[in-house]
Design brief:
alpha+beta, 19% strand, Helix Hairpins, single chain, Chitinase A, domain 3, elongated
């Protein structure tokens, strides 16, 4: 099973490499054609971008390596963990909420995608269907029941991944 985040990171890496190996050399060549490099803002900007991209490429390569090294079989099949989608019911209002535990690069609170390292994510980790959970909010806490759980092992895309 290949994690979807790897496709995004691979695309970002490919884009950064293209910019570093194609766009930056062209920008440096154009800037050097202007003459004196000591006061050449275009040249300095291109060099700064080059340094940034080199660092970004290293970060992306490390992140891809780290994620590729994750042993998915160690993620629980019977309780929430990375990649799980939890369907929750507010015990006071009956309102339903859905959260998905994702990598930091995938976080999007508007879509219910939260990191397991966030306060809400930490509260949800290790939960099973039927468990009650207190979720910390800005100035209070809400009590929910986990009414449905889809783990990374059983997610077929219906969970909004």
């Amino acid at each position: 099973m290949r994690l979807p985040i790897l496709d995004k990171l691979d695309k970002d890496l490919e884009s950064a490499r293209k910019e570093l190996n194609v766009d930056i050399p062209h920008a440096l060549k154009v800037a050097m054609a202007h003459g004196d490099l000591s006061e050449n803002a275009e040249y300095k900007a291109a060099k700064e971008r080059q340094t940034f991209l080199q660092s970004r490429i290293s970060q992306l390569q490390k992140r891809i390596s780290d994620i590729t090294g994750i042993n998915l079989s160690r993620i629980p099949k019977d309780r929430s963990g990375l990649g799980s989608t939890l369907f929750l019911k507010d015990l006071n209002t009956g309102e339903e909420t859905v959260f998905r535990l994702v990598f930091p690069e995938e976080v999007n609170p508007d879509e219910g995608k939260i990191s397991g390292a966030s306060p809400i994510g930490r509260a949800l980790l290790g939960k099973r269907e039927g468990d009650e959970v207190l979720i910390p909010l800005a100035e209070s806490r809400k009590e929910f029941e986990v009414v449905r759980l889809i783990t990374i092992h059983e997610d077929t895309g219906e969970a909004g991944g």
